[in-house]
Amino acid sequence: MASMIFTDCSSSTMSRLIHLDRRNGAFLPHPCVGQLSLRTTASGRGCTLSIRSSSSPSAIVINGKAEAKKIRDDIKIEVSRMKESIGVVPGLAVILVGKNEESATYVRNKKKACESVGIKSFEVGLAEDSSEEEVLKYVSGFNDDPSVHGILVQLPLPSHMDEQKILSAVSIEKDVDGFHPLNIGRLAMRGREPLFVPCTPKGCIELLHRYNIEIKGKKAVVIGRSNIVGMPAALLLQREDATVSIIHSRTKNPEEITRQADILISAVGKPNMVRGSWIKPGAVIIDVGIKRVEGRFVGDICYAEACKVASAITPVPGGVGPMTIAMLLVNTLTSAKRIHYFQSSSDLKG
Ligand code: GUN
């Protein structure tokens, strides 16, 4: 991308606008709204907000927080059914190396989410200067531990460690992050099925499904090519029959490419980089970026501007973030079920 934009792009009209929180029906301050009506989708799994504005068009707010709550509620039921039927409690082990504050927050949130649904969590915190062998020793121990069904090594790892070696050491049957080369390789290949799909991109696609947003045949653009989000998101969109372009740091005129996108996923962590003028009218926007700016969380997308152009958009916070954790819980439950040959009772997706 030729230039990175960090400006505050908020509109002065923001304070006049309202947002419908679907969980409790309360109206909250939100920059994205005109007139709202709520409609349940045919599948009953999600609902569509029909929005009309008296002045300018406004996007539907894709409420990841509410969808994640529904998913957690379903998981909680499944976890207790599993415990009652076969006496097995799904377990997730998390390895955190170093004192990266963002990583520590993610790990804390993952642990809290596990507790909320009855998944047992195991946490190992290692010093920044720990050796690779130490991390590998814990990975190996969790691989052999029958009470652990999912293993997550929080990234990034300190620079003296070989990330590939450590991620490759995780048993593919417990690779709930989907980062093992075999799982990623299968994701990239036609006719192959990974045992797990990385949680953030999986959460993005789940949101599109839950809001009945058609992917097949659409032009999708992903900004960012990280192993954690951008690359697997592009692979997933391709598996859903979208025509996919990837924008990265060397892409010339990124806005010309984003303007063609029916679906735009941005995962670069550059606050407000994508302006309203980068967006095709009616596009669906999934904002994975999240950075703290002057005490507020801000995404990659200039939200106030995007709301006037897009047909639907994820907010930051409350969009993709909660879905990432929900997908980690789904993957952990799926793993425990697979290991113990326990049948699914619901339509929870693995
Ligand atoms: N760091 C940022 N996101 C993730 C994730 O989804 N999994 C792991 N293991 N590390 C991360």
UniProtKB/TrEMBL annotation:
Pathway: One-carbon metabolism; tetrahydrofolate interconversion. CDD domains: NAD_bind_m-THF_DH_Cyclohyd (cd01080). Keywords: Hydrolase, Multifunctional enzyme, NADP, One-carbon metabolism, Oxidoreductase, Photorespiration. It comes from the Eukaryota. One of its GO terms (molecular function) is methylenetetrahydrofolate dehydrogenase (NADP+) activity. Residues 62-177 form the Tetrahydrofolate dehydrogenase/cyclohydrolase catalytic domain. Residues 198-338 form the Tetrahydrofolate dehydrogenase/cyclohydrolase NAD(P)-binding domain. InterPro entries: THF_DH/CycHdrlase, THF_DH/CycHdrlase_cat_dom, THF_DH/CycHdrlase_CS, THF_DH/CycHdrlase_NAD-bd_dom. One of its GO terms (cellular component) is cytosol. GO terms for biological process: photorespiration; tetrahydrofolate interconversion. It catalyses: (6R)-5,10-methenyltetrahydrofolate + H2O = (6R)-10-formyltetrahydrofolate + H(+); (6R)-5,10-methylene-5,6,7,8-tetrahydrofolate + NADP(+) = (6R)-5,10-methenyltetrahydrofolate + NADPH. Catalyzes the oxidation of 5,10-methylenetetrahydrofolate to 5,10-methenyltetrahydrofolate and then the hydrolysis of 5,10-methenyltetrahydrofolate to 10-formyltetrahydrofolate. Homodimer. Belongs to the tetrahydrofolate dehydrogenase/cyclohydrolase family. NCBIfam families: PRK14186.1. This is Tetrahydrofolate dehydrogenase/cyclohydrolase catalytic domain. It comes from Arabidopsis suecica (Swedish thale-cress). The lineage of its organism: Eukaryota, Viridiplantae, Streptophyta, Embryophyta, Tracheophyta.
